[in-house]
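This section describes the prediction task in plain terms. A model, or a person checking by hand, is given the sequence of a single protein chain and must write out its three-dimensional structure as a string of tokens. No templates, partner chains or ligands are provided. The sample shown here is typical of the held-out split.
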Amino acid sequence: MTYKQFRRNTRQREVILRCLQATTCHPTASTLYDLVRKELPRMSLGTVYRNLELLAEIGLIQKLQFSGEANFDGTPDPHPHIHCEHCGRIDDLPIDCCPTIEFTQTSGYKVTGYRLVLSGICPECKAKESEQDNKESVLSEPTSPLNTQDI
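The expected answer:
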């Protein structure tokens, strides 16, 4: 089913899709709402949620649900992601690792899609973690005892 066959096209839906496709991050609905309101200030958050769900359902975007609030990807083609376990940031992985051709030939499955997500700690969280570790190690270093002969 194509986009036009599913529902009539609306200006709101066009703006939501354009804003999502223009971003390189994977925003939540509320983050995207802030972007969309710059162009359509009277749009409601509910309208953004409903349209994102519809766009994901018809395959024009991806809905990414790792924990908590869903994130959205303006690239509908399956591709791998990496998810930060600390802050929730999601990035695309710049690798092509779709094993469907070999798997289909050897398994007999008809592959209809795939999702590959690596989990880890993003560079910003890793830097904060290292900074915190450094502070803790400085605070926990034993101080030399006072020598009574030095007094």
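For orientation: The mean pLDDT is 84.
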